[in-house]
C-alpha cells in the first residue's frame, strides 16, 4: 500500500510532463512579421493645457432680405454647390416694379415742368426762384427713381462667392422682411479654429504663434497660427476668443464647420526629458496601451502609459510616461503583432 501511494504522484507527474511535451510539439510556430523599427526619441516635453475649439469656414455669409416681399422661388437646396453670382432667392417684384414705374412718371413730369418754366424765364414770364424750385423737385424725383430701382434689384439675391449652401430656413411663399435670414453659404476650402483662451494663459498666447490642435472625430492633429486674439474677456467664462488660421492643407481631410477641436496651449512648466514614440506604434485595448519593442529578433510586448503629444517633422509623437527605456526600439506594423513573434526589419 505504501508503495502504491508513492507511485501515484510519480505517475501524475510523468503524465503532466508528457502532456506538456506533446502540447509544445503540436503548438504552431508564430509566422515571421515584417516590421519597421523606430528608436525611442528623447526630448523635452512641454506641459500643455488643452482647451476646446470649434472649426468654422473662413469665408461664410448669411443671405438676408433687405425689403419686405413674398418669396417666389429658391432655386438651391441645402448642401448644393453654387458659383459666385448664381441666383439664390427671388422675391415678388410686382409692387417694386410698380414703384419704379411710378417714380419714372413723376420724374418725367418734373422734367417737363422744369423745361416749361425755363422757357418762360427766358421770356421774363417766370421767376428764377420758381425755376430753382422745379429743379430741386426734379432732383428729388430722380433720387426716388434710383431708390425704387435699387429696391427692385434687392428682389433677386445672388451668391457673393462660390461655396456650398449650409442652411435654408425659409421656403417659397414665406414673407421676407428686412434683416430676415434666408440662406447661409460658406466656402468649404478654407477653415479656421476658434478657441477660448483662459485668462490665466492669455499672456502666453501671442499673435503669429504656431499652435497644434486635434480633431478627435477625424483622429488628426494639425498646425495653426494665431491670427487674432480678442482684447476683451467673456465675463461668464473668463476666456478670450482666439482665431487660428490652419497651416496644413485641409482640402482632403473632410473638415466641416462646427466640428469639435482641442487646442494645446503651452503652460509654464517643462519636463527636462521625456520619451516619445510614433502615435501609430501604440495599440489600444480598452484602457490598456501597449507597444512592441525589438528584443533578440522578436517582438516583445510592453504595457505603457502615454502623456502629451507633439509634432516632430510633421509626425505626431506621443510621450511615454512609463513602460519603455531610452535605448529601446519600438516596432511599427500593419499587422497585429504577438508577443514573442519573430520579425524582419525593413527600412
Which terms summarize this structure?
21 strands; four-stranded antiparallel beta sheet; 43% strand; Elongation Factor Tu (Ef-tu), domain 3; conserved putative lor/sdh protein from methanococcus maripaludis s2 fold; six-stranded antiparallel beta barrel
Description:
23% of the residues lie in helices and 43% in strands. The protein has 347 residues and is α+β, with helices and mostly antiparallel strands. The protein folds into four domains: 33-48 and 271-346, conserved putative lor/sdh protein from methanococcus maripaludis s2 fold (Beta Barrel); 50-58 and 187-266, Efflux pump adaptor protein, beta barrel domain (Elongation Factor Tu (Ef-tu), domain 3, Beta Barrel); 60-90 and 155-186, RNA polymerase II/Efflux pump adaptor protein, barrel-sandwich hybrid domain (OB fold (Dihydrolipoamide Acetyltransferase, E2P), Beta Barrel); 93-154, Helix Hairpins. The chain has a six-stranded antiparallel beta barrel with strand order 2-11-14-13-12-15. A four-stranded antiparallel sheet has the order 3-10-8-5, with no helix packed on it. Strands 7-6-4-9 form a four-stranded antiparallel sheet, with no helix packed on it. A hairpin with a 2-residue loop joins strand 17 (288-295) and strand 18 (298-312). Helix 2 (94-122) packs antiparallel against helix 3. The chain is elongated, with a radius of gyration of 38 Å. Mean pLDDT is 84; it is low at 1-13 and 22-27.
Amino acid at each position: 500500500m505504501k508503495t502504491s501511494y508513492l507511485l501515484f504522484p510519480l505517475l501524475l507527474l510523468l503524465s503532466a510532463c508528457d502532456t506538456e511535451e506533446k502540447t509544445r510539439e503540436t503548438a504552431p510556430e508564430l509566422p515571421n512579421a515584417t516590421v519597421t523599427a523606430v528608436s525611442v526619441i528623447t526630448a523635452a516635453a512641454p506641459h500643455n493645457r488643452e482647451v476646446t475649439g470649434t472649426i468654422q469656414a473662413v469665408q461664410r455669409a448669411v443671405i438676408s432680405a433687405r425689403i419686405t416681399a413674398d418669396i417666389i422661388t429658391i432655386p438651391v437646396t441645402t448642401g448644393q454647390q453654387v458659383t459666385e453670382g448664381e441666383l439664390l432667392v427671388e422675391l415678388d417684384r410686382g409692387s417694386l416694379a410698380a414703384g419704379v414705374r411710378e417714380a419714372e412718371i413723376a420724374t418725367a413730369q418734373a422734367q417737363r415742368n422744369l423745361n416749361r418754366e425755363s422757357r418762360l424765364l427766358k421770356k421774363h414770364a417766370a421767376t428764377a426762384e420758381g425755376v430753382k424750385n422745379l429743379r430741386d423737385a426734379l432732383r428729388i424725383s430722380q433720387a426716388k427713381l434710383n431708390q425704387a430701382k435699387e429696391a427692385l434689384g434687392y428682389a433677386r439675391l445672388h451668391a457673393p462667392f462660390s461655396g456650398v449652401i449650409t442652411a435654408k430656413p425659409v421656403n417659397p411663399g414665406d414673407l421676407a422682411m428686412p434683416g430676415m435670414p434666408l440662406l447661409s453659404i460658406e466656402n468649404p476650402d478654407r477653415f479656421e479654429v476658434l478657441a477660448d483662451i483662459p485668462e490665466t494663459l492669455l499672456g502666453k498666447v501671442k499673435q503669429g504663434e504656431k499652435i497644434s490642435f486635434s480633431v478627435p472625430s477625424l483622429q488628426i492633429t494639425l498646425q495653426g497660427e494665431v491670427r487674432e486674439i480678442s482684447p476683451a474677456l467673456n465675463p461668464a467664462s473668463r476666456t478670450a476668443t482666439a482665431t487660428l488660421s490652419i497651416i496644413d492643407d485641409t482640402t482632403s481631410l473632410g473638415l466641416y464647420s462646427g466640428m469639435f477641436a482641442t487646442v494645446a496651449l503651452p503652460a509654464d512648466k517643462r519636463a527636462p526629458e521625456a520619451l516619445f514614440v510614433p502615435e501609430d506604434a501604440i495599440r489600444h485595448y480598452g484602457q490598456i496601451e501597449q507597444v512592441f519593442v525589438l528584443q533578440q529578433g522578436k517582438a516583445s510586448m510592453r504595457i505603457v502609459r502615454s502623456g502629451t503629444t507633439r509634432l516632430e517633422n510633421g509626425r505626431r509623437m506621443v510621450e511615454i510616461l512609463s513602460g519603455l527605456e531610452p535605448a529601446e526600439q519600438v516596432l511599427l506594423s500593419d499587422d497585429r503583432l504577438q508577443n514573442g513573434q519573430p520579425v524582419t526589419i525593413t527600412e
